[in-house]
Amino acid sequence: MIASLRRGSRWTAAALLTLGLAGPATLAGCSAENASANCPSTSECTITFDRSADNAKINVLGVEISVVSADDNSVTLKVGGQQVTVQRDASASIGGLTVNLTSITDSEIVVKVTRS
């Protein structure tokens, strides 16, 4: 009985730790294809898209964001059905969100999305 309780306690502690670590991303309602997100709150996410993928998209902050095209200095995104082009180290507002292109390399595109 004691061994059973200890195993249960360890499982409960592990589950709570996992939920605690995944909490912000879970709250943001994130689903993705060739992309990942780090969402420290329910109003902000940093998204990394796989630049070489034909279809890179993610659903964060209640909106789907996908890569339409990219060059060395800008990216065109579809944000909730509307297109926006963002220059490197610049931001643009669209659909109640501010999108900032923080990095673009041969392999990835990193944008920060914040509710306005």
UniProtKB/TrEMBL annotation:
Key word Signal present: yes
Origin species:
Hamadaea flava
The molecule here is called Uncharacterized protein
Q: Which domain of life is it from?
A: Bacteria
**Alphabetically ordered keywords of this record:** Signal
- Look up the signal peptide feature and give its range: 1-27
